[in-house]
Amino acid sequence: MIGTPYWMAPEVILLHEKDTISYDTKCDIWSVGITAIEYSDGQAPRLSIEPTHVLKLIPISRPPKLKNFYSRSYYYNRFVNGCLKFRPEDRPTATTLLNK
């Protein structure tokens, strides 16, 4: 497995458990969402959890949210929430993110 666990999309983790799952550039959109949370909150979500545990947690948990989402703009929240859709097909493309 290649990648940094805290920024890893669920489908990337699941790929190593099931051979039928694949991933594409939508996993990078997930990582952008995690980076946006890190930028806003000062650290990535779940950093207090050991990497081996976070790899088990990400595929079975709800996507993380901004800590102080009320103090962020509607558009920033929409950006983060869009990036962190659990199902890759529900995430926007990079082009869509840049145009909104």
TrEMBL record:
A GO molecular function held by the record: protein serine/threonine kinase activity
Transcription recorded as keyword: no
PROSITE patterns named in the record: PROTEIN_KINASE_DOM
Keywords: ATP-binding, Kinase, Nucleotide-binding, Serine/threonine-protein kinase, Transferase
GO cellular component: cytoplasm
Pfam families: Pkinase
Residue ranges constituting the Protein kinase domain according to the UniProt record: 1-100
Catalytic activity: L-threonyl-[protein] + ATP = O-phospho-L-threonyl-[protein] + ADP + H(+); L-seryl-[protein] + ATP = O-phospho-L-seryl-[protein] + ADP + H(+)
InterPro entries hit by this protein: Kinase-like_dom_sf (IPR011009), Prot_kinase_dom (IPR000719), STE20/SPS1-PAK (IPR050629)
PANTHER family: FI20177P1, STERILE20-LIKE KINASE, ISOFORM B-RELATED
Annotated family: Belongs to the protein kinase superfamily. STE Ser/Thr protein kinase family. STE20 subfamily.
UniProt name for this protein: Serine/threonine-protein kinase dst2 (Trinotate prediction)
